[in-house]
Amino acid sequence: MKRKINPLPFIVIASFVLLLNWYVLSGIQTISNPLWIGPVFWTFILLVVAGLLFSIQRFGKQGADLFFTISTHTFLILLTSELVFITILFLGDGYRLLSGGVRSKYWVEFGMVLFFVTVLLFLYGIIRGKYAYRVIRHTLFFDELPEAFDGFSITQISDVHSGSFKSPPSVQKGIDLIKAQQSDLFVFTGDLVNNKAEEIVPWISRFSQIKAPYGQFSILGNHDYGDYIKWPDETAKRKNLDNLKKHHQEMGYRLLLDEHVEIHKEGQKIILAGVENWGLGFGERGDLDKALRNTDTQDFKVLLSHDPTHWESQVKQSPMNVHLTLSGHTHGMQFGIEAFGIKWSPVKYRYAHWAGIAVDNGRYLNINRGFGFLGFSGRVGIWPEITVITLKKTRQ
Question: Where does CATH 3.60.21.10 sit in the chain?
């Protein structure tokens, strides 16, 4: 029996788009209202929406090709810029209603300026922002840190998503920046690819350049398991994951799969553990107890766990006392603002803590904003991150 499609969501979305653009057009007509403005405006909106629907319809057959990228990005940029514009327009109309006057052109013109600024910011994010790597440094103090590891440094990257890369020279700049940190330890916290192991193959020679005196370690993220595309059968899916694990080895990364290693220095040690992906809504595969088996509660522990919801749900309450967890996954949604004391991204409505350092009961979490990008082929305000964490022993 053919499945019935519920038309309600489509009606709600269509109504929202219609009302949004009616309000935008009313603002434009406040400044200029020739006879052709309405038909041209609605024709443009119709073409953008039709392109989006057509690209989504053929996505299942063609995948994310150039047409899909252009149509979805055009819709995203237009929608976001229009929301900025109507926010200003709404404030102006609110003031007009309170004051009893007419709609001011100055409010509309200010909104139009912000509209075009938003468009330009998105274009910058697509052209340059997605490769605008930043080094973010944190110094963390721990009572339990062994003396030998006072000043020990860790470079972390996450969410490479190599299938999205198009510019080898730009990626190499990021890798060179990683190498320039000269940290004691290098870790990668998951999502090497978007879907398929083959995506990393052209980039293996570049990421294998990253070396650290105490080694290079990695874990898997939710995208690494191939859960988001169709496979001919389970055998093909398993083979893809096996190939991806081999690619980690080819890059010189020790892949930690619910296990730990001991990092030794001057007769003392810390524990570095890594779990398979564990995330609310993204597969709860990881086994923390297995990863920490045969460790002591007094051992200083660093855990690699891709999804920060693992820290919230299990790690920070664990009796095994994990001192520092390194995660990624959120990307900071690749859009937001972190300036002038403001830290905001739409991803905050999904994750209470979505970037940087969090601490609870003396246990720390760092969420890396991601090295690559996915979905939206750009970054605006939330730039690709290379994290450098220096461990320090608390002095009494």
Answer: 132-393
